[in-house]
Amino acid sequence: MNLLDHATASYLGLAIGDALGATVEFMIPREIKLKYGVHQTLCGGGWLHLKPGQVTDDTTMSLALGGAICLQGKVDALASAQAFDAWMRSKPVDIGNTVRRNLIQFRKTGHPEAPYSDHDAGNGAAMRVLPVALATLGQSEQQVRDACRLQAHVTHHCALSDAACEALVLMVQDALRGADKLHLLHQHAHPLAAAHPEFRFRAIKPVHNPSGYVADTLAAVFQSFFDTDNFRDCLIDIVNRGGDADTTGAIAGMLAGVLYGRDAIPKNWLNTLNVEIRKACEAQAVALIQLSGTPVKTAEVRY
After folding, report:
1. Burial 179-190, CB ≥16 within 10 A → b, else e
2. Separation of alpha carbons 296 and 301, rounded Å
3. Which residues form the domain of 153?
4. Digit-coded pLDDT (tens) for 130-151
């Protein structure tokens, strides 16, 4: 398995899923079908009036976090908070209410950990966890979980958010080690649902119009990811469910990318993705894997 190929595919998958889903964010499946038939192109538009291939906060917050990790050489709460604050000051195309509220609180206090709240169970921390997965590859499970919480608690200090972030990071890392989908299902997705029934995704109806609630998000993502067998079908399935489609698309793209690799990403999607974003995702994936200290053959570096 080519480690950098799959790490890069995960980052590109996140960005492509974000751009694909943003077009139909907040639409319901019936509206999507009436307007697009099956939505399957990076055509931009949507409520944010995006350009084709343009991404939203899912990708740009991930890149902000990854940049902070690279500068610090580790996942650091204060550096993460400062990076997110600088990102917010750059006037991003979109920003979640929980993220905005807790970053404003950080500006006031300088404390990089938001107060605990069960109400902060949104998907805003889970959507940006990929840099943590890449940078902590090879560390102990407890170190990985601790790193997840350092970045997540800046804006989402909540048990359900923590559980989602940690499960996603461990899934990405196992996939980078060569684990197959069945392993990810039984070692991570099912145990998550067993520990927190809110995350159940089997024996329930297909999740359509998924909200920003993190359990709703992951139920939809897991249904699409585990019930398809290639990158393209996974992303088309998830974004046509509507709802918070940029984030469900980003998380599904992250998982599908790391599992199937770069060659599985449709060329027309990759070519339409914003060029600067594509280059940033590629470069950061390599930098974060190198930071982790995981041995990589020179021949694996590919752009």
Report:
1. bebeebbeebbb
2. 8
3. 3-300
4. 999 999 999 999 999 999 999 9
